[in-house]
Automatic annotation (TrEMBL):
It comes from Rahnella woolbedingensis. Residues 19-249 form the ABC transporter domain. One of its GO terms (molecular function) is ATP hydrolysis activity. This is Ferric ABC transporter ATP-binding protein. The lineage of its organism: Bacteria, Pseudomonadati, Pseudomonadota, Gammaproteobacteria, Enterobacterales. Keywords: ATP-binding, Ion transport, Iron, Iron transport, Nucleotide-binding, Transport.
Length: 358
């Protein structure tokens, strides 16, 4: 796919821009929502704020947009201090959960509205609207109205309306929350495709872990106004920095373990030691992801387990086994085994799904 496009072809401004928050705090009256927040979005990257409801993600996004002012700290876009600038003076566009389209305007008028306000000539607006619609796979939809298209299509129009302005920064506020599961997948693919195609520096807010992983270069996990961990999706999942992170990033079984030179020992069972384990440690707590555990018909006594609970999930079963008196959650691929409570197996743990907890 070409990276040249007359609507959103990355101009110098777009590719060079970045966002930085320095020592930002936000208080609403006596309620401190954020404290000492530092955040940097490299040029052309997508950073996602992920966290439980109320942790402060939308407040961060609104401060970057200029809809809220930090109580302390400064915000920079493209090297300029924008802390005291209004939303109109920041060269950013926002894509909202609610689409925020004008119902009395055609889709073409909605998308071209920003350019019209900038006083661009009619012919240019018409051409750029057509191209923006094409980018979001809505060719020929100029004359339709909001009530004549689906929710998924409305969100594509909202995306086109943002892209047409070639903003320095794109902000996404839970943009998929109102869409059903199938539409969510195709919309997030479209967002990621366009963001990467045009190297648009972007900040994305969601409380959905799989959505955050699918669209982001970097994910920043927040809890109660604090940053818990920042990293690439694989890093956060495979090397969570705390128990909160281990459980927030998915299911995890947690055990005390003895560390040997080349192996990790849990209940007498030896597993090859993953590279993440620091040399010199002798004991630690390990986390094991459910998908890293498999059931087989052969093994030794240290691997013996009995199934205590089975839940059918479609592609896989979620299975709880008892292992050395401890419950252990694992997944069984439905094409491989039909597990039943009471069955005896021998388990194996793959080192890929194991991490150290400190
Ligand atoms: N305008 C406001 N006045 C007072 N308190 C506010 C205001 N905006 C946000 N808050 C408070 O700040 C905290 C963080 O809210 P925020 O909306 O940033 O969280 P969030 O992580 O985006 O949550 P959600 O996923 O539910 O949107 C909450 O306790 C909220 O009640």
């Amino acid at each position: 796919m070409t990276t040249e496009h007359p609507v959103a072809a990355a101009p110098a401004q777009t590719t060079k821009s970045f966002v930085e928050l320095k020592s930002v705090a936000k208080r609403f009256g006596s309620n401190t929502v954020l404290e000492g927040l530092n955040l940097a979005i490299p040029k052309g990257k997508m950073v996602t704020l992920l966290g439980p409801s109320g942790c402060g993600k939308t407040t961060v996004l609104r401060m970057v947009a200029g809809l809220e002012k930090p109580t302390e700290g400064r915000i920079f876009i493209d090297g300029e201090d924008v802390t005291d600038r209004s939303i109109q003076q920041r060269d950013i566009c926002m894509v909202f959960q609610s689409y925020a389209l004008f119902p009395h305007m055609s889709l073409g008028e909605n998308i071209g509205y920003g350019l019209k306000m900038l006083g661009r000539p009619k012919a240019e607006i018409r051409d750029r609207v057509r191209e923006a619609l094409s980018l979001v796979d809505l060719d020929g939809f100029e004359d339709r109205y909001v009530d004549q298209i689906s929710g998924g299509q409305q969100q594509r129009v909202a995306l086109a309306r943002a892209l047409i302005l070639k903003p320095k920064v794109l902000l996404f506020d839970e943009p998929l929350s109102n869409l059903d599961a199938n539409l969510r997948r195709s919309m997030r693919e479209k967002i990621r495709e366009l963001q990467q195609q045009f190297n648009i520096t972007s900040l994305y807010v969601t409380h959905d872990q799989s959505e955050a992983f699918a669209v982001s270069d970097t994910v920043l996990v927040m809890n109660k106004g604090k940053i818990m961990q920042i990293g690439a999706p694989q890093e956060l999942y495979r090397q969570p920095a705390s128990r909160f992170m281990a459980s927030f990033m998915g299911d995890a079984n947690v055990f005390p373990a003895d560390l040997h030179r080349d192996t990790v020992e849990i209940f007498g069972y030896h597993i090859p030691k993953p590279a993440a384990f620091a040399p010199g440690m002798q004991q630690c707590t390990v986390g094991v992801r459910p998908e890293a555990i498999t059931l087989g018909l052969q093994g030794d006594d240290s691997q013996r387990c009995v199934i205590t609970h089975v839940a059918y999930m479609g592609p896989q079963y979620e299975v709880t086994v008892e292992w050395h008196g401890q419950p252990l959650l694992l997944q069984v691929n439905a094409t491989q085994l039909q597990p039943t409570a009471g069955d005896n197996f021998f388990l194996q743990i793959h080192p890929y799904g194991m991490f150290v907890l400190v």
